[in-house]
Amino acid sequence: xxxxxxxxxxxxxxxxxxxxxxxxxxxxxxxxxxxxxxxxxxxxxxxxxxxxxxxxxxxxxxxxxxxxxxxxxxxxxxxxxxxxxxxxxxxxxxxxxxxxxxxxxxxxxxxxxxxxxxx
Length: 119
Hints:
This protein has about 120 residues and is mainly β. It has strands spanning about 5, 10-15, 20-25, 35-40, 45-50, 60, 70, 80-85, 90-100, 110, 115-119.
């Protein structure tokens, strides 16, 4: 099992930007897997924010479309979530997750990183 680690969270004012990073603790490439970013605020359901399949198909939730971008390095050792035009409602713990391709649940999760957007 691959241990995923997120980083880059913090406190930012509304309208600001943050870039989150997700990588395997060992540094191994994540090629051959689907990778996704989720978020969860207190009292709210976990929400899929963005995903990238092993073949580089991209998906964005409507609430972040045009503001967030998921990307990766050429070797796919790190997956990023660039977050622009942040809003207070983006405040949540953000998680990266991975799975083997196909119609299955994400079954490998990082510990999460807190993002707080002040008004």
